[in-house]
Design brief:
Blueprint (H helix, E strand, L loop, with lengths): L2 H14 L21 E5 L5 E5 L10 E6 L2 E7 L2 E5 L6 E10 L2 E13 L5 E3 L10 E6 L6 E5 L15 E3 L3 E9 L2 E2 L3 E5 L8 E2 L6 E2 L4 E3 L1 E2 L5 E5 L16 E3 L3 E8 L9 E7 L8 E3 L3 E2 L4 E6 L6 E5 L10 E2 L4 E3 L3 E8 L9 E7 L3 H5 L6 E6 L5 E4 L7 E4 L8 E21 L10 E6 L2 E6 L6 E20 L10 E11 L13 H7 L4 H4 L7 E3 L5 E6 L35 H4 L5 E7 L7 E2 L10 E8 L1
Parallel strand pairs: 1-7, 16-22, 24-30
Antiparallel strand pairs: 2-5, 3-4, 3-6, 6-7, 8-9, 9-11, 10-12, 12-13, 12-14, 15-18, 17-20, 19-21, 21-22, 23-25, 25-28, 26-27, 26-29, 29-30, 31-34, 32-33, 33-38, 34-37, 34-38, 35-36, 35-37, 39-40, 40-43, 41-42, 41-43
C-alpha cells in the first residue's frame, strides 16, 4: 500500500470520529468532535479523544505527533489514542502530523478550539439574607469575558444587561452568564431575601395514626408568607390551596405544606404522612346466668363502645344487620345460646360474643308454676321425682319416691295467705277408708286437710287457706308397717295458688325489696335494681321521690299523700281508674309537682303516661318533687 493510502485513512478516521468510531482502528471516540482542519467551540468539561491507526504494510518507524499551541501533547507509533482536556484560560490550536524517517507524511491537520468561558461567581453567595439592601458583585475567572445578568428570574442572554455593580432592596433572583468569542458559560443563579420563612408545623406528627373519620389537622407557621398545602403527596406550589384553618379527612393521606413569600425565602416542604387505622367496636358482654330454674332468666348486653348498636340471636346463628336490635334487658325462657355483635359508623364490626344459657328443670316446671319454689324429701325415704304421665293434666307429674314400710315421701312449698290452693292428684296403693294403710295426704301448717288412697284417676282438689302470713303446704305419701298394693305411690300436678290478699296496697317510698317479695314475688328480680335509684335531687334542688307501683306520703304527713294505685287481680295497675293528673286537692302542698311514668319493663325506657300510651306499660312509678 502506498503512503497516500495511509494518510487518507488517517484523515478519514479523524473526520468520522464525530460519529463515535474510526474507520481504520474500530476504536470508539469519547467525544464527538470533528478533528479535520477547522474552527469549533467546545466546553471545558469535555475530553477530546481521537485515534490514529495504520494499515498493514505501513512504514515501521511511522510516528504520529500531536501538539497544542505548539507544545507536544502526545507521540505514538502505530495505533493509539490521544486525550486532551482544555481549560477556561484561552483558545487552542491542535495540530496532528505523521513523521517517518524524519520526513512528514502527508499534510498537517490543524483544528482551532474556542473554549466557552468559566461560570461567573456571584458575591454574596446564594441564600444570603439582608435587612434593607444588599450590594451584589460578579466576577469571571476567564480573562476578557463579559458578564450579562437579570434580576427578574428570567434566563440571561448575550443581549441581557452587562454587569455593573448594583444593589437590591427586596427578595431577588439574580441569574448571570459569561460571554467570550460568542461562547456562553452556564447560567449561574443566586437568590437573596429579607429573611427565611420558618417551616410549618403540623398538629399531627409525620407517621401519626388516627382511628376515626373527620380527623382534624391544623398547621402552624409564623405568618411571614402564604401557607399552601396538598393532600395527594405532590409538592406544594403557588397554585396549591391556601391554608385557611384546620381541615379534616377520613382516609390515610400525605399532607405537604410550604410557606411562600414575596420578601422572604420560602420555607422547606414539610410532610406529614397520616395513616387511618380502623378499630373494632368493643365486643359486647352478655350478663346472664349460665343456668337458671323457673320460667325465665334475665339477659343484659352491654358494649364498652358508647353509642354502638348491638344485635343478637338466640338460635345459635351468627348475628347480622337483620338480627334483633338490643334495646334493653330481656328474658329467655329456655336453653339457648346468646350471640351478639356490635356495630357503629366509623368502626369495624365487633367480634361476636357467645354465651350459653341452660334451662335447668325444677319441680315448679312440672307442677305448672315454674317460678314457684318447691322442695322434696322424706322421713327415712326418697323424695318426689319427675315422671311422664300421659293421663296428667300437663303430660307429666311429680311422683312420690320409692319408700318402704313406715316411711314417707314429702313434697312441700310455701304460700302467703290468705288464698285458694288448687292441684290435681292420684294414687295407686292400698284402699282403706280410715287412711291407716298406705295413703297420700295434704297438710297445711302441719295439719292434714285432705287424704287420698286406693287406685284412683286424676282428681282435682281445692281448698281455702285462711290467715295472713306464710303457710307451709305439704303433699305426703305414707306407708304403714306391712304390705302394699298397686304401684305404691302418689302423683301431684297442676298446682295453683290464688292469693286473697287485697289488690290495693300502700307502701313505703321507695318500694322496698321486702314489700315486693311479700306482695309481688314474680317481679322481685326486675325491681331490685331500681330500689337504690328511687330517690334523687331535682335540678332545682327539690327532693324527688319515686314511688314504684304505689305510693304513700314520703314524709308520712297526713297533709301530703299519693293515692294508692288500684290493682287488678292479675297484679297489674287498673289503668281505667288511674288518675294521670291528681287534683291539687289530693296533694295539699302548694307548689308540689307529680308525674306518673310508665315502662314496658323496668329495664326499658320510662315515659310519661298519657291516655294514648298507657296501655303499653306494665310498670308504673310516680315522680314527686317537694319544695
Amino acid at each position: 500500500m502506498n503512503k497516500s493510502l495511509m494518510i487518507g485513512c488517517l484523515i478519514m478516521a479523524m473526520a468520522l470520529s464525530v460519529h463515535g468510531a474510526t474507520m481504520c482502528s474500530g476504536e470508539s471516540a469519547s467525544v464527538t468532535l470533528d478533528l479535520v482542519t477547522g474552527t469549533r467551540a467546545i466546553s471545558a468539561s469535555e475530553t477530546i479523544r481521537y485515534s490514529t491507526a495504520w494499515v498493514d504494510g505501513a512504514v515501521a518507524d511511522a510516528m504520529a505527533i500531536v501538539e497544542v499551541n505548539g507544545e507536544p501533547l502526545s507521540s505514538m507509533a502505530g495505533s493509539g489514542a490521544v486525550t486532551w482536556t482544555p481549560q477556561h484560560n484561552g483558545n487552542y490550536t491542535l495540530t496532528h502530523k505523521v513523521m517517518s524517517g524524519g520526513t512528514q507524511i502527508g499534510e498537517t491537520l490543524t483544528a482551532m478550539f474556542f473554549v466557552e468561558p468559566a461560570n461567573p461567581v456571584l458575591n454574596p453567595v446564594s441564600g444570603t439574607t439582608f435587612d434593607s439592601s444588599l450590594s451584589v458583585s460578579m466576577t469571571c475567572p476567564t480573562e476578557g469575558a463579559t458578564i450579562h445578568y437579570t434580576t427578574d428570574g428570567s434566563e440571561p442572554t448575550a443581549e441581557s444587561p452587562e454587569y455593573k455593580r448594583f444593589k437590591i432592596s427586596g427578595k431577588t433572583t439574580v441569574r448571570a452568564i459569561a460571554e467570550k468569542n460568542g461562547l456562553l458559560s452556564e447560567v449561574v443563579t443566586a437568590e437573596y431575601a429579607l429573611g427565611q420563612c420558618a417551616d410549618p408545623v403540623f398538629s399531627l406528627a409525620d407517621g401519626a395514626e388516627f382511628e376515626h373519620s373527620n380527623q382534624e389537622v391544623s398547621i402552624a407557621w409564623n405568618n411571614d408568607g402564604v401557607l399552601r398545602y396538598t393532600l395527594d403527596g405532590s409538592e406544594p406550589t403557588v397554585e396549591s390551596p391556601i391554608y385557611e384553618g384546620p381541615f379534616s379527612f377520613s382516609e390515610s393521606v400525605v399532607v405537604k405544606a410550604k410557606v411562600f413569600s414575596d420578601d422572604f425565602f420560602d420555607s422547606s416542604v414539610v410532610t406529614a404522612s397520616l395513616t387511618r387505622v380502623w378499630v373494632n367496636v368493643a365486643t359486647p358482654v352478655v350478663d346472664a346466668s349460665s343456668s337458671f330454674t323457673g320460667s325465665k332468666t334475665k339477659v343484659s348486653i352491654s358494649c364498652a363502645t358508647e353509642g354502638a348498636v348491638v344485635r343478637y340471636t338466640l338460635d345459635g346463628n351468627e348475628p347480622n344487620s337483620h338480627s334483633t336490635k338490643y334495646t334493653g334487658p330481656f328474658y329467655v325462657t329456655d336453653s339457648c345460646t346468646v350471640k351478639a355483635y356490635a356495630v357503629m359508623p366509623d368502626y369495624l364490626d365487633s367480634e361476636v360474643a357467645a354465651f350459653a344459657i341452660e334451662k335447668v328443670w325444677a319441680i315448679g316446671d312440672t307442677m305448672g308454676k315454674p317460678d314457684h319454689g318447691f322442695t322434696t324429701g322424706g322421713s327415712g325415704g326418697a323424695g318426689w321425682t319427675r315422671v311422664t304421665d300421659a293421663t296428667a293434666p300437663n303430660g307429666e307429674a311429680m311422683k312420690s319416691g320409692a319408700i318402704t314400710h313406715s316411711q314417707s315421701s314429702v313434697l312441700s312449698t310455701k304460700v302467703m295467705g290468705p288464698g285458694t290452693l288448687s292441684f290435681s292428684w292420684r294414687t295407686s296403693c292400698e284402699q282403706d277408708d280410715d287412711y291407716e294403710w298406705d295413703h297420700a295426704e295434704l297438710a297445711v301448717d302441719g295439719v292434714v286437710k285432705l287424704r287420698l288412697n286406693g287406685v284412683t284417676e286424676w282428681t282435682a282438689a281445692s281448698m281455702e287457706i285462711t290467715g295472713d302470713g306464710e303457710h307451709t303446704i305439704e303433699w305426703r305419701y305414707l306407708k304403714d308397717d306391712v304390705e302394699g298394693a298397686g304401684e305404691d305411690a302418689a302423683w301431684v300436678a297442676n298446682y295453683s295458688w290464688a292469693s286473697a290478699e287485697p289488690y290495693t296496697h300502700t307502701t313505703e317510698v321507695p318500694v322496698s325489696y321486702a314489700w315486693l317479695a311479700a306482695h309481688e314475688p314474680g317481679v322481685v328480680d326486675e325491681y331490685e335494681s331500681y330500689e337504690v335509684s328511687a330517690k334523687a335531687t331535682a335540678a332545682n334542688g327539690w327532693k324527688v321521690w319515686e314511688c314504684y307501683v304505689v305510693g304513700l306520703d314520703p314524709q308520712k304527713m297526713d297533709v301530703f299523700r299519693i293515692s294508692a294505685f288500684p290493682m287488678k287481680a292479675d297484679g297489674t295497675p287498673d289503668l281505667e281508674n288511674l288518675a294521670l293528673e291528681p287534683a291539687q286537692s289530693e296533694w295539699n302542698v302548694p307548689g308540689a309537682r307529680a308525674v306518673i311514668m310508665g315502662a314496658a319493663t323496668l329495664g326499658g325506657e320510662w315515659q310519661t303516661v298519657t291516655e294514648e300510651n298507657k296501655a303499653l306499660f306494665r310498670f308504673f312509678r310516680v315522680v314527686v318533687e317537694l319544695p
